[in-house]
Amino acid sequence: MELGKKSLRQMINESSVKVVDAYKNEHGDNWRFECVESIDNEVAKAEASLKYWKGVRAKVMISK
C-alpha cells in the first residue's frame, strides 16, 4: 500500500466508527435501527443510480 492511500478496509473501519458515534449521539437507545435504516436507504439510492447508468450505457452502446 502506498503512503497516504488507505485500504478499503481502513476506510470502512474509520467511517463505521464515525457513523456509530454520530447515530448514538443523535438517536440514543434507538441508534442502531435508525442507522441501519439510513444505510439501507443509501444502498437503495446507489442501486437505482447504478441501474440508471447501466441503462444509459446500454443505449450508448447501440447508438449509431
Topology readout:
Elements: H1 8-27, H2 31-62
Architecture overview:
With 64 residues, this protein is mainly alpha-helical. The chain has two helices and no strands. The protein has helices spanning 8-27, 31-62. It is flat, with a radius of gyration of 18 Å.
- Rg over alpha carbons: 18 Å
Number of helices: 2
| Order of helical and strand elements | HH
Shape: flat
Beta-strand percentage range: under 5%
Question: What is the total tally of β strands?
Answer: 0
What fraction, in percent, of the residue positions are helical? over 70%
Structural class: mainly alpha
Q: Overall mean pLDDT score? A: 94
Gap from first CA to last CA: 43 Å
State the major sheet. Answer: none
Please give a handful of descriptors for the protein shown.
64 residues; flat
Quick synopsis:
With 64 residues, the protein is mainly alpha-helical. Helix content is 81%, strand content 0%.
